[in-house]
Known about the structure:
By secondary structure, the chain is of the alpha/beta class. The chain has 14 helices and ten strands. It folds into two domains: about 5-120 and about 310-340, 2-Layer Sandwich (Nucleotidyltransferase, domain 5), CATH 3.30.420.40; about 130-305, ATPase, nucleotide binding domain (Nucleotidyltransferase, domain 5), CATH 3.30.420. A five-stranded mixed beta sheet has the order 3-2-1-4-5, sandwiched between helices.
Amino acid sequence: MEPAQSLSFIFRIGVRAMYVLAVDGGGTKTSAVISDELGNIHAKLVTNRSNPTAMEMELFKATLHQLLQGLRAQNPHIFSAVRICFAGMAGVQEKKAETIVETIFREYVHSEAIVIIQNDALIALYAGTFGGEGIVQIAGTGAVTVGYDHTHSFYRVGGWGYLFDDEGSGYDLGVQALKAVFQSHDNRSRSTLLTDALLKHFAVNNVPELIDCIYGTKHPRTVIAPLSMYVMEAAELGDLAANIIRENSCSKLYHAIKTCYQQLSWKGQMVVPVVLTGGVLSNTSYFISKLTQLAINDQLPLQFLSPQLDPIGGAVIGALHTMGISVGDEFSAKFMEHYVKWGK
Length: 344
């Protein structure tokens, strides 16, 4: 029996064979796996970015074709038995390219397979809530807050770009670090450990030389966002300027989370999970403590937590959740174990 025929047979007689194809597409890289409901991985591929707002559409399409072809080549039989595809992809909804993505997926998967295209923020949420409602705060190079409630309504706060938004992001922290360094150089503010950190980072001898490094040929986000790590390091060492920047970042993120919470509908007195993800929030103990205190002050029922899975795991959960399958800690542990070991 051919794979496609066998899948039709599985659908007709209701035999349990739950293989899902999950994709996490972003501006830096794209991850994809074929997983089952137990957390076993049967194919995995990581390739270049797939954000249509940051690349030509033809290159975006080519990336998806290469991704799906690569997965299929790894495990043709299991690929043919995929019952649902769940893709969380940055920029697709903004570009209104959902139909384009679905059409490409349907070139490869069985005709009876379900194809779902969602925002990448949803799979980041699911990586922490295992398919439940809540809020996700992403703070990496950029920052965005997205809520999803029991009525299946979404609400987005922020993430409108580095020129005038993305407060609390790595880019925002990097800009504040540069301000602190230049103001210290001018004696407008006290000295800061950030000065030596940035001079060493750019391999220059004095503060004015930083100008050529920042206003170069690279995109400012690429140059400035990585400077956020020095803010965190200096803050841990007690640097006043870095601590102020970090605390202000926390306040900005909390304001976005609070706004998102107030715009959605939550069941009764439920405690709303808030998943914190992204490089800026890697010091989870600090941010969870600070954000929790801010929520207590406002008497808001928010529970801040770190995701147990990478976003690609959230995409798998989104697929299983759509099919009515719930997962828990056992799935999480097995999936991440297989994901890390795959290909090594």
